[in-house]
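Much of what follows relies on a compact textual record of a protein's fold. A complete example follows; check for yourself that the lines match position by position.
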Amino acid sequence: MKEIRTKSRLAMVLSRLEGFKDPNLRQEQYITDSEVAASVLWNANMLGDIKGKSIADLGCGTGVLGIGALLLGARKVVFVDMDKSTLETAKNNLAKLKSEFSLYTGFAEFINQDIKEVVIDVDVVLQNPPFGTKVKHHDIIFLEKAFKTATVVYSFHKSESKRFLECFSAKKNARLTHVWGFKFPLKATFSFHRRQIHRIDVSCFRFEVKNNFVDGK
C-alpha cells in the first residue's frame, strides 16, 4: 500500500479532488485550498491528532480535510454536511482515491444533517466553517458544536478573530494552544467575483477542551 510520506505529496493528492458543483453563497462554499489543508493536517499529525484517531469533519464540503485525515492514517472520519449534493461529491472524491491509490484503511461515515442537530463523539474535529460574512456568527455556531464533539479542535477563522476566539473558548472550558496563519486563497466562484484569486488572512486555530488536560497545566 502506498503511503503519504511528505506534505507536498499530500497536497498534490488533495489537489485532485473535485470541487463544488453548484456552490451556495449563503453557506460560503469555498473549497479548502489543498496546500493549506495539507499544512494543517501535517501539523496535526505531528502533534499526534490524526493517526489512529476518530475525527469529524464538520461542514465537510467536498471532503478535503476529512479525506486528508484518512490518508494520514485516521481510524475513522465522520463527514457531516447539510448539503446532500456536496456530501455526494465528498463520497465520490473518497471513492476515487480509494480505487486509484488504496491510500487509506480507515472507516468513513457520511451524515447529511444540519450542524445544529448532529450529535457525535470523536477524538478530534477538523473544520473549515463559513466565516460568518453572510450569516452572522455562523463560524461560532460551528466552533461551539465542535467543543461539544471532541477534546481537540482544529478550526479555520479569520486571523483578526484571535482575541475573540481566546475569550470565547475560555468561556466554553477550552483553551487555544496553536495558531497557524495563511494567506487563504479564495478562487473566483460566483458571478460577481472580479479576480481569479482573492487572498484573505485566515488562521487555523487548535483548541483543547478543558477535560482533555490536567488541572494546573
The longest strand covers residues 174-187.
